[in-house]
Design a protein that fits this description.
Layout (H helix, E strand, L loop, with lengths): L25 H7 L4 E5 L5 E2 L14 E5 L3 E10 L12 E8 L4 E5 L13 E8 L5 E7 L1
Antiparallel strand pairs: 1-2, 1-3, 4-5, 4-7, 5-6, 7-8
Bound molecules: zinc ion.
Length: 143
């Protein structure tokens, strides 16, 4: 039998973190320049996203920044109608996971298409640049 315990409601909680990026900060510099780059290990060739300072496969720190071709196909998507607090000012949006020809799966917003047009297998292109708020970012557009 389900028992309901007495409770009180807390105030809303806002969380904000300082994320150290000293060894991968170039990622945001490249985005601002309109380039989507991530890291590849020069020892074993492992391509990684998000970018890393040390290889996730062999732990070597001999890492190079490579620009991705960025073409791919939608593997999964979701429409976000009920937005988190930080996105309340924006209209509903769609997030996709795409399989890139570069061999990575990337999750990002898709811009430039109606929600009803997004489907699994849709060809997309990864873009980099600044948002309308001037923040470096990346997103997909229909190819
Ligand atoms: Zn490696």
């Amino acid at each position: 039998m389900w028992k309901s315990w007495p409770s009180i409601k807390s105030k809303p909680v806002t969380m904000e973190f300082e994320i150290p990026t000293n060894r991968t900060h170039k990622f945001w510099d490249y985005l601002e320049a309109g380039e989507f780059r991530t890291t590849r290990c020069n020892s074993c060739g492992t391509l990684t996203f998000p970018p890393v300072a040390d290889c996730v496969n062999c732990t070597d720190s001999d890492i190079e920044w490579v620009e991705l071709d960025g073409r791919g196909e939608v593997a999964a998507f979701t429409h976000v109608i009920v937005r988190p607090t930080s996105f309340q000012e924006r209209p509903p949006y769609t997030i996709v996971i795409a399989d890139l020809t570069d061999g990575l799966k990337i999750l990002a917003w898709i811009e430039g298409s109606e929600m009803t047009e997004v489907e699994v297998g849709m060809k997309v292109q990864l873009k980099a640049g600044k948002t309308v708020d001037g923040e470096p970012s990346y997103w997909f557009v229909p190819e």
